[in-house]
Amino acid sequence: MSWLIAPLAGGGIVAFGLVLIRMHARQRAKHESDPGLDEHERLFHERRYRRRMQTSSMLMGIGALVAVGDQLFSWEDAPGWFAVYWLVVLLVTFWIVILAIGDMAQTKVHTRASMARIRRKQRELQDELAKHRQEF
Length: 136
Hints:
Elements: H1 5-32, H2 39-72, H3 79-135
Helix pairs in contact: 1-2, 2-3
């Protein structure tokens, strides 16, 4: 029964990656059809889509590796290959974490810039409203 744990865990990770890819594709389609987005916004969303698709695809790869890892190399038969195999899995996992941190940072920078543009526009509109009120 213990031989079933890794394939089930790996399959769950692959399924999670597939769900994420579907969500990213839906989000991309929504942004592509939005006529209100300027070129800066479109570029941000396209880059974010590529980052997240890469991360989700790599997550699916890790799921596949986890699912077959125990069947390919056993600790007793080939401890060196077993260690190298799982080191590669850990390095890919680390890379996914780095990509996720980068995505969060880019989203934070983009959100701050967008909020600054909104606040600036709000001040402009409030100033214009104040001018109109003075005229009447």
